[in-house]
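FAQ
Q: What does a multi-component entry look like?
A: The components come first, one per line:
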Amino acid sequence: MQRYFVPEEGWQESMVRITGDDRHHIDRVMRMQTGDSIICNAPEGRAAICTISNITDQYIAATINEWLDESKELPVEVTIAHGLPKSDKLELVLQKGTELGAASFIPFQAGRSIVKWDKKKAEKKLSRYQKIVKEASEQSHRTVVPEVEPFLDFDALLRKSEDYPVKIFAYEDEAKTKDFHGLSSILSGLEPGQKIIACIGPEGGYTIEEAEALKAHGFEPVRLGPRILRTETAPLYLLASISYHFEELRC
Amino acid sequence: MQRYFVPEEGWQESMVRITGDDRHHIDRVMRMQTGDSIICNAPEGRAAICTISNITDQYIAATINEWLDESKELPVEVTIAHGLPKSDKLELVLQKGTELGAASFIPFQAGRSIVKWDKKKAEKKLSRYQKIVKEASEQSHRTVVPEVEPFLDFDALLRKSEDYPVKIFAYEDEAKTKDFHGLSSILSGLEPGQKIIACIGPEGGYTIEEAEALKAHGFEPVRLGPRILRTETAPLYLLASISYHFEELRC
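Then the predicted structure of the entire assembly, as tokens:
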């Protein structure tokens, strides 16, 4: 069944009102009719099966039939802070990271990022990125849409990280030692609902100064398996491992 | 240090001879000089640090200095059998799947594959795919290059699967039940060195007939977390989970 995220103002007691791109998608792309069923997600994470009752050029109205009891969200809230990678790799991370359950994304300017963003460029990108995560959430049947937070410089990222009780960073140098710090021991220590921020370097990794600053701010270096992963593969490994740990292995 | 896979015929007792694209890469792309060091991988998985001793237009000669003791390979041999997906998604699976440790890949024609391949097209694609996995192996410091096996139809895939003692398939319907079969219990039962084949459906998943045939041939359905993953994300989740299970959690 097709799924749509409906913002707060679209919800009434027993009805949902859908406008904008989603109205167009239901009417023109899916060519649905009154009587057809869809799943509507509310902002706080709940979802309901709804039946389309009226299709107009301005909105689509649907009646709420049944609230669903779903558990599609990772039991811990994972934020991926990603040093700006080249070309469209960040879009891949946003799409796949959403499928894999990330709670939010923070793009940041890393010392070795080839791409440089200014404020104007960052704002323009942000609305595109929010569209990608919304669509990926619908596709993967998530019950909440991840946040894509405004672009930060490295110092602002360090300040922002103070909101998170658990902080890790993928650090290639850890993969070269036998005495690496275990991702599994960090995951095993997490409580349900806890927030964790994972910092991923751009191509070429962190500068030595960045790695030192991350450690000084309480980020623990982790390795993500013994192979060297590309920058865009690292967050996918991490999120899949977190899902496996909590949702499949149930450690 | 840059890493190159050198085929059997390039190895002599204390020397390596590199030709073709890799010769070009060392000479013209990396602009290396005699005296520079590289890592050369032999086909059976061993790797050595070598020093360039001679650069000609036909070959590059390098002296073997030291054999490395490396453990970069997953402790189990994972084959990803992927129902042909659309556009360049298979290339993404090959590149990322190689980084994540797959031992081999088998593309197959699934009932719901939009793309149809004939023998000629499959042969043309194969050499491109082999190049992708070779480059990804070098990038991720793997010690063996995964196989990309010739394209199969579904019946040939079923026959081929008899070579594998453990067989699983990602099945969306399993994700909808509470009584799903656990990936973790299958992984926990694997012995080091054992071969496992994982079958991934194309966009739209398997036909009912395919799912039944897979079960009848001993494939166990598994879910890959509670969210619905795109076809190209499923093998990455699976490989990352296998790496986490054996290489990080060390179950």
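Q: Is there any commentary attached?
A: Sometimes. For this entry: The longest helix of chain A spans residues 119-139.
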